[in-house]
Design goal:
single chain, alpha/beta, Rossmann fold, six-stranded mixed beta sheet, 6 helices, globular
């Protein structure tokens, strides 16, 4: 199984959004962030061909990123997983995967920092702290035998691409 961990695209400024007394979960992507993610999504599709499912955090900026991916992957189904909120523990998402992603070969996971880097570190090395850093619109490809075996130290890092590589 291949897991594509994708950090959401550039969103509106956190502090400015908070000054307007709006909940951070409602912070949308910027126009520039959308355009950059479209380029990244096209390159990802060219690289991997297809994904079976897109799983996203329920936060607006992640959902909007997932929708861009879905369009580039020919309307691939999107499912929201509350386990992908920014400070969700990696173990919670692993349980979600075991319950919802059986028999899938590739899953795009759209979320936030620090959650995605913690998830990657947990799956790669069993670590409880982040061993990698993910840029906005960055992607890490992790490979594992299958979802039933998913857990600490069960994945291998196939590649990690910052968005600059695919947008220049």
């Amino acid at each position: 199984m291949e897991l594509y961990l994708i950090r959401h695209a550039v969103a509106e400024d956190r502090e400015e959004f908070a000054r307007r007394s709006q909940d951070d979960s409602l912070r949308p992507l910027t126009v520039k962030g959308r355009k950059k993610m479209q380029k990244v999504a096209i390159r990802l599709r060219d690289q991997v061909g297809d994904v079976d499912l897109i799983v996203t955090s329920p936060y607006l900026r992640a959902r909007q990123t997932a929708e861009i991916l879905s369009q580039m992957f020919f309307e691939t189904k999107i499912i929201e997983a509350p386990e992908l909120v920014p400070h969700g523990p990696p173990q919670a998402f692993v349980r979600w995967m075991k319950a919802h992603a059986r028999d899938l070969q590739s899953v795009a996971v759209v979320g936030h920092e620090p959650q995605l880097s913690l998830l990657a570190s947990y799956l790669l090395a069993g670590a409880e702290e982040s061993l990698i850093a993910m840029k906005k619109s960055g992607i890490a490809c992790l490979e594992t035998v299958d979802v039933e075996e998913l857990g600490p130290s069960t994945a291998e890092l196939s590649w990690l691409v910052p968005p600059k590589i695919w947008t220049d």
